[in-house]
């Protein structure tokens, strides 16, 4: 497609997200400007190494453990805010989800469940089975909801028990030593299940989409 359409769409999405953060009072204009410049710099810096990182991610057997550890380190060194806000937990959610997805991809590849397309691009369009789409959506949402409820409750109770706190007290979730593992482990599990458990389950019951790259 026309590259300018893609650039316009990306720019619109970026502005939309940035303005929403300002509207909600989460960040200032300077935060948005600095973050955008930093993101552009990272894209410029990392783009030449995308393929190498992708190959390392798929082929290194300990990549899931490495992903998990890097996420913990990034959270550990997150700047401590002067007053509590959701910014830290939002960052933890993003890191947990992203590293969970990456770890699941490595696991899928190592188990031989992630295969390359049989033909090179450009792919011919295969219209999806809409009943299967509906089933995957409903079952996927149920599985993700169960994952979230189970993991967050288990993690909250264990961490509060370790630190001698009452898990029923909502203020506990604002403590960094509770908040970080609470969000990170919960969304790591969600990200992992989205990219591993759900596809494997769907394939087992015959509603998987092995050729998702050809769907609309």
Automatic annotation (TrEMBL):
It comes from the Eukaryota. The chain crosses the membrane at residues 6-24, 29-50, 56-79, 91-109, 129-147, 182-202. Its main location: endoplasmic reticulum. InterPro entries: PAP2/HPO, PAP2/HPO_sf. Coiled coil: none annotated. Residues 6-51 form the Phosphatidic acid phosphatase type 2/haloperoxidase domain. GO terms for molecular function: sphingosine-1-phosphate phosphatase activity. GO terms for cellular component: endoplasmic reticulum membrane. Keywords: Endoplasmic reticulum, Hydrolase, Membrane, Transmembrane, Transmembrane helix. One of its GO terms (biological process) is sphingosine metabolic process. It is found in: Endoplasmic reticulum membrane. It holds the Pfam family PAP2. It is a multi-pass membrane protein. Belongs to the type 2 lipid phosphate phosphatase family. This is Phosphatidic acid phosphatase type 2/haloperoxidase domain-containing protein. The lineage of its organism: Eukaryota, Metazoa, Spiralia, Gnathifera, Rotifera.
């Amino acid at each position: 497609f026309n590259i300018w359409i893609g650039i316009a769409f990306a720019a619109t999405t970026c502005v939309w997200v940035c303005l929403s953060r300002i509207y909600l009072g989460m960040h200032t204009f300077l935060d948005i400007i600095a973050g955008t410049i930093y993101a552009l710099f990272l894209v410029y810096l990392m783009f030449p190494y995308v393929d190498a990182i992708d190959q390392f991610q798929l082929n290194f057997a300990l990549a899931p453990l490495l992903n998990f550890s890097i996420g913990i380190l990034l959270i550990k060194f997150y700047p401590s805010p002067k007053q509590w806000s959701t910014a830290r937990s939002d960052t933890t959610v993003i890191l947990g989800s992203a590293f969970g997805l990456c770890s699941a991809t490595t696991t899928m590849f190592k188990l031989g469940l992630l295969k390359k397309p049989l033909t090179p691009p450009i792919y011919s369009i295969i219209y999806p089975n809409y009943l299967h789409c509906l089933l995957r959506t409903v079952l996927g949402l149920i599985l993700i909801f169960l994952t979230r409820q189970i993991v967050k409750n288990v993690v909250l109770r264990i961490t509060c028990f370790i630190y001698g706190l009452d898990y029923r007290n909502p203020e506990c979730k604002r403590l960094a030593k509770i908040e970080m593992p609470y969000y990170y482990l919960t969304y790591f599990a969600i990200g992992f299940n989205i990219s591993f458990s759900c596809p494997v389950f769907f394939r087992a019951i015959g509603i998987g989409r092995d050729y998702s790259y050809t769907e609309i």
